[in-house]
Amino acid sequence: MEGASGPSFFNVAMWKTMGRFYMPYQFMQAKAGRNTTQMVANIPNVISKRPDLVVIMGGTNGFKGLQGWIDLRTCALAYLLGGAMYVVIMPCIPDDSDNSFTNGTDTTRRDLNSYIQNGASDPVVGQYFRSGNIIAAPSVDAGYDTTAMMIGDKRHPNWPGATYIATQSLVRALTPLITSSLDHLALYNDASNLLNTYSNNPQMLGTGGANNLTTGSVATGWQAGAISSGMGGVFSKVKKTMGAGTVQITGTTATISGYSGPPIQVGQYLSAASANTSIVQQISGTTGRDGTYQVNNSQSLASIATNLQVDAQRILVNGTGVSAGNYVREYNRTAFPFNVLAGQQYDMWVAFNLAAGCTGLQTIRTNFGSGNMLSLDQNRTELMDGIGEIDGVFRTYCFAPFAADGAAPLSMLAQNMFASSGTIGMDLTLYAPVLRLIPDP
């Protein structure tokens, strides 16, 4: 998923699929520079993880033409026979590191992509393409700008390139696999969210948090900070409308004030699109785990929309970073009053909106663990400038399982935003944080 240089499109795809896909600790098997022969040799390691879904992707230095396809289908078939439910095969992206666009060697890349896109007719794995167990992710060739979307080596994507690949290919391949309405927005007010259980304010209510930035308000129990003598910003409390979802109708009649669509049955799920309004999902203490908001027939659409507003934390960062690796963060340091068991793992989810126009931002990470947790990607050199607006969910890379039974350590849940030296600007809104025990994968 990630080469020796440049950001990973896989991270962006995970953001944009709203935390629905989960990669446990040490499940990432992609290695920079690995060719398809080595991918075949690594099949036992992949199968040993017991994955439900495997995504295969490589560069033109990794595989080309017919032999690359033979190796890829060998991997895909082995993953399915080893227990995976789905395998997504990504297209090979354009690579001009050896002037292949002018010397004609790009033909082998196109040949490989043709084998992938026509997998349904392959005599070995065609049946799995036709059944939907192997999925050919859409090509990115039509809109991939090899000048603006690549880093200097002309082989690896930069942040705009990674975002384009994620949005136009991997997200489109993954989205049809999402069949449940249960998502993290249905969990943040639930008892399974340890922040909620131990009164750590996942609703981000109030303004009593600590802030060492220039000005602004931080949600009660949370803290904000920055490391850079020239970097500052403003934290503020805002309202955020929950992502598009459904409303379940309760009551005894088939009408709702302000709704003029088809007749609604009691218990039916009304989507925002069918209501032609901004009805979106809201979680309350009486709502089911499937993420629906139950309303009665006396509520108007306007009142429903008002009730769907949740507290959120907006972070405006500006100024000048004195060196690469400067960061801004919001965090909640917690002493959890419970014991952990050997082998248990926890992760954190946070819904977010990153406004278009960020400048000098290197990466964003959500972390959960002991200590200050500022070691992730702070030396990334590529900037996120030009990626546009992103709505999504940050979900942590899972930390290692606990080695032994014992008391839960003093831990920190942090949203870290690493910046470069020079001019910095960012507008990020966070809401609905979740910390929970990970089910056995």
Report on this structure:
There is one protein chain. By secondary structure, the protein is of the alpha/beta class. It folds into 3 domains: 9-177, Rossmann fold; 194-240 and 311-437, Jelly Rolls (Sandwich); 246-307, no CATH class. Helices cover 20% and strands 28% of the residues. It has 11 helices and 19 strands. It has helices spanning 9-16, 36-41, 43-48, 65-81, 100-103, 106-117, 126-131, 159-174, 194-197, 272-275, 301-307; strands at residues 53-56, 86-89, 134-136, 208-211, 215-216, 218-227, 231-241, 246-249, 269-271, 293-295, 309-321, 326-335, 339-340, 346-354, 361-369, 390-395, 406-407, 410-419, 422-437. The strands form 5 sheets. A 6-stranded mixed β-sheet has the order 5-7-11-19-14-16. Strand 1 (53-56), helix 4 and strand 2 (86-89) form a beta-alpha-beta unit. Helix 4 runs parallel beside helix 6 (106-117). The radius of gyration is 23 Å and the shape is globular. The two termini are 20 Å apart. 41% of the residues are buried.
Annotation keywords:
Rossmann fold; 5-stranded mixed beta sheet; globular; 441 residues; Jelly Rolls; 19 strands
How do the helices and strands line up, and which of them pair or pack?
Elements: H1 9-16, H2 36-41, H3 43-48, E1 53-56, H4 65-81, E2 86-89, H5 100-103, H6 106-117, H7 126-131, E3 134-136, H8 159-174, H9 194-197, E4 208-211, E5 215-216, E6 218-227, E7 231-241, E8 246-249, E9 269-271, H10 272-275, E10 293-295, H11 301-307, E11 309-321, E12 326-335, E13 339-340, E14 346-354, E15 361-369, E16 390-395, E17 406-407, E18 410-419, E19 422-437
Parallel strand pairs: 1-2, 2-3, 4-6, 5-7, 8-10
Antiparallel strand pairs: 6-12, 7-11, 8-9, 11-19, 12-18, 13-17, 14-16, 14-19, 15-18
Helix pairs in contact: 1-8, 4-6
